[in-house]
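pinned: reference chain
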Amino acid sequence: MVLKTEHLALSLPGKSKPLFRDISLDLDAGEMCIVSGKAGSGKTLLGLALCGFLPLWMHNWRLDGRIELCGRPLNQGEYRDEAGIILENPYNQVSGIKRSVIEELAFPLECRGVQPSLMHDLIDRYADTLGISRLLKRNVRFLSGGELQRVIIACSLISCPRFLFLDRLMTEIDAD
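pinned: its structure tokens
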């Protein structure tokens, strides 16, 4: 089992009822699930919770229920290599400390201690797969929204997460 949740409910201060409640699911390797709902219904917050990232985005919240990722309980604020998220707005996911696309792609690998020789192979493979090889030397600050979205997708995939939450993935993708 890659992801298992039991009776998740997210409450925010000042709200009379939970933003979402009673979310239970089981996802095995290779399975997909679609979360749908109106704008503001909590889809993004659910994704952040499923990856353990709620504390990075919110200060006051209460999450009830249980999340298990790859057979172990997931606590909010605990960074786990097995989880990744691609947010709707790619500008929210740029590291802010790297200038070029190649440096941005290397960043998640550096954080995991990947050897430089393997790092170069992974960067080339994912840049080629996502059609961003021509962008590798460009400054991330000067990319179009669609180019940046592809870079963020590559940054998320390059780490090979077991669970990946995609939040309106194609909002910025532009045609070549």
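why pinned: The CA atoms of residues 127 and 133 lie 5 Å apart. The first helix runs from residue 43 to 51.
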